[in-house]
Amino acid sequence: VVDHDVERAEPLDAQVDRNALRLQTARLMFDAEREDQGARLLQDVPAEDPDHAEAALRLADLYERRGDQEKLVELLSRKLESARERRSPSVIPLSLRMGAMLAQTRPEQAAELYRQALALMPENEELLRAAIEQTDSEEQADERASLIVRYLATPSAGERESAVDYARWLVQHRGSDLDP
Fold it and tell me: What would the pLDDT profile of 27-52 be if each residue is shown by its tens digit?
């Protein structure tokens, strides 16, 4: 009798092991200042496991350090689209990274990116904070107020200094219209 669960698990385990080995070897290559070899190893990981966020983020770090914005944007866009399709939690770090890049030169694109990420991960505090910071307090006041209300409803918002600032802004913006 063949145990089919074991047969299916072995290729997955082998894939996980190969990618862990690639990542570790890439780290050693980077430590030895052999970035090109490390980058090639990292590029092999997403080819086998498209949801491997660590490899993508390490490649993004490398491209950013080298000033290769074109490769960086291409990588993050591709990874983000793939993560969205699978509704993967890696949407969070990828959106935050790409949003921070876009915020400097294309703030409307950054705001839209955060909206899309929040559609998948609506209660994520980091995404909510990034979206709040990206919205204009005058031109997008209603959207900002809605984001702040969602943020203040998250479990650990009360532990953050930003919650007090956001609550103050909300009171000033909405004034007496706030629901008790």
Answer: 999 899 998 898 888 888 878 887 67
